Each structure stands twice: as structure tokens, then as C-alpha cells.
Amino acid sequence: MNRPRGSDRDEALAGRRFGAAADEYVAGRPDYPAEIVEWLVGDARSVADVGAGTGKLTAALIRPGRDVVAVEPDAGMLAALAREVPGARVEQGSGEALPLADASVDAVVYGQAWHWVDVTAASAEAARVLRPGGALGLVWNVRDSDVDWVHELGTIMRGSAAERMIDSDSVVVAPPFGPLERRDLRWTRAMSVDQLVAMAASRSSVIALADGERADLLDAVRTLLETHPATAGRDRIEMPYTTSAFRTLRP
Questions:
Q1: Are 248 and 133 in contact (CB under 8 A)?
Q2: Between 20 and 30 A from 220 (CA), which of 43, 66, 164, 211?
Q3: pLDDT value at position 8?
Q4: What angle do CA 187, 59, 121 make, to 5 degrees?
Q5: Which structural domains are found in the chain, ordered by start?
């Protein structure tokens, strides 16, 4: 099993409760840069967005001539996806058990989700549903902690399994897929204090906290944003992100 262990156990449990924070996820999580999305899927005409959540990546994938199916295990997140991306085709399922036919799609993509899967099982399932030459694409939006106030924010929120995996360049897939190609893009997103607090509230490690601990943590986030010299008094705060994307092709 290639799942989070040890200090990441609470995060793994929280990953099955994301639906309770669907509204915060919609408000606080960033979209995906179009340049990266197009690099992940290229000229694919049929795409499965797995671990689709509230549809952040689904919305970026949908365009004329492209058939997109969003696959998500959490019913609460699927309800938010239906609201946020009207008309999206959705299926309930997981990376280890995709509700798709063999060789039925040109690309399988994961946005903020590959760190939740069993890598061996999910790789085998992606290979099953992909046509030969199809792409498996993995992407994460990660805050740029080289910026002082962002580093302090991360300390309050605590690290995540995904961030540790990206920082250590330890994103992996399993056979039949070969080596991953990587692309990174730095960009910024203008956010309000409320959106930044919602972003913190949508984090799996925060969802896993007891109510009192969660409230204290979110209060600390708001206090940081209202008092740090780089963010205090601003209606909009520029959050620096790095989007890290990985791609490999099915043999």
C-alpha cells in the first residue's frame, strides 16, 4: 500500500471527509493555469478527472470537442461539483476502482489527489482505462513558502503529505508507466482574507482537528493576515503559487 503513514494518518482519514468542507474548498482553493492543463492532456478528446472534488480541474478541462468525466468518491464533493460545473458528467468512484470501460479515454488526470491513492492499484486502473499512448497526468497547486508570510501561514496550518512529496521530488507512478516528465509554473492569485481562511479550512489536516483546535487554528490564520506587514490592511492579498505537473504515457 502506498498511502500516507505515521504523522499523515489523520490526513488520510480526513480525506474521506472532504465533503464536510466542500464550500470552503470552492471558496479557498485555486483554479489550475490553462497552460499547465493543456500540457497535461494535449490533444486528448476524452479525459477522466479522478478525485475531481468540487470540479476545479474539471472546469478547466471542459471545452468544445472534449468529453470530460469527473470521478469522485465523496458524495458531498460531487454535489458541489454539480453546482459549480453545471452539466458536467460525473461518476462516483475512486482511483483504485474507476467506473470506466477498458481503453475508453485518452487521458486520466488527478488534481490535488494522487497522494491519496494506492499508487500500484491506481496506476493499474489508469492503464486499464487509457488507450495506448494515452496520458496519465498529475498536478498540484502548492503555496510558495519562500515568501515570508506564506511560510508563517504554512507553519500555522502544518505541512501536508502532498507538499512533502513535491518538495522531495518523490512523486511516483507504478508499472506499466515509465518515468514522469515534470513542468512547474509560478503564478499568483489575488485573494481576500476570507478566501485565505477558507483555503486553510479546506485542508485535510485542518478538517481532521477537533472543533476547538480547528477554530483556534483558523483564528491564528486570520490574525497573521491582519497583522503581518505584507498583508495587513489589504483588501486583496497576492498568494504566490507554484503549480507542479507530471505526465507519463501509457505504453
A1: no
A2: 164
A3: 44
A4: 90
A5: 6-143+165-189+241-249 (3.40.50.150)
| 3 state SS of 153 | helix
Amino acid at site 166: I
Q: How far apart are CA 54 and CA 19, in angstroms?
A: 9
State the Cα–Cα distance between residues 187 and 184, nearest whole angstrom.
10
Sign of CA dihedral 208, 12, 92, 198: positive
Cβ-contact 184, 247 below 8 angstroms: no
Ordered per-residue pLDDT tens for the chain, 251 residues: 344 333 343 444 444 466 767 889 889 999 999 999 999 999 999 999 999 999 999 999 999 899 999 999 998 899 999 999 988 899 999 999 999 999 999 999 999 999 999 999 999 999 999 999 999 999 999 999 999 999 999 999 987 778 888 888 899 999 999 999 999 999 999 999 999 999 999 998 898 889 999 999 999 999 999 999 999 999 999 999 999 999 999 99
Name the one residue in this structure whose C-alpha cell is 499568483.
Answer: 188
Residues near 54 by beta carbon (within 8 Å), at least 6 away in sequence: 22, 25, 26, 29, 77, 80, 81, 84
Task: Tell me 21's DSSP state.
Answer: G
Say how far apart CA 25 and CA 30 lie, in whole Å.
9
Q: Which is nearest to 198 in space by CA: 29, 76, 78?
A: 29
How many other C-beta atoms can be found within 10 angstroms of the C-beta atom of residue 230? Answer: 13
Reported pTM: 0.90
Round to the nearest angstrom and report the end-to-end CA distance of the chain: 24
Distance CA 230, CA 228 (A): 5
Which DSSP symbol is given to 97?
A: B
What one-character DSSP code corresponds to residue 245? E
